[in-house]
Amino acid sequence: MSTMQPSITRLAVDYRPHPNICLREMLIQGDQLTVQLDGQILFASAGPLRRLLQEQAEDYAPRRLVLDCRRVTFVDSEGLAMLVGLDRHCRGNAIELWLKNPGEHLARLLKMTRLDQILAVAPQTTGDD
Hints:
Layout: E1 8-18, E2 21-29, E3 32-41, H1 43-60, E4 64-75, H2 77-92, E5 96-100, H3 104-112, E6 120-121
Parallel strand pairs: 3-4, 4-5, 5-6
Antiparallel strand pairs: 1-2, 2-3
Helix pairs in contact: 1-2
């Protein structure tokens, strides 16, 4: 007996809440919303990005929100604070927040600050999976 995989809805977004960061696309698969980020999460972009991600989580009401960070090139302290705040918001709404494919810079920051013990980090993957 085979199990059916939930269908994937791919939304090409290319939306910039701030010039430093872009939501490239969103994938909806079952009760999971995956958002592909591209750019830098900095002091100036963290607030608009957090508000946008919270709105998407509220609009789609997923059980899991996955931020695909493979194209995130830089994160400063405000960006880290944004991730922690978003995690709190998600937990308060029964949503799991996962960081997927953190690049070397972000992975190093998460480890140095021990946020890798607080935030859920999915294993590194390749390609479009």
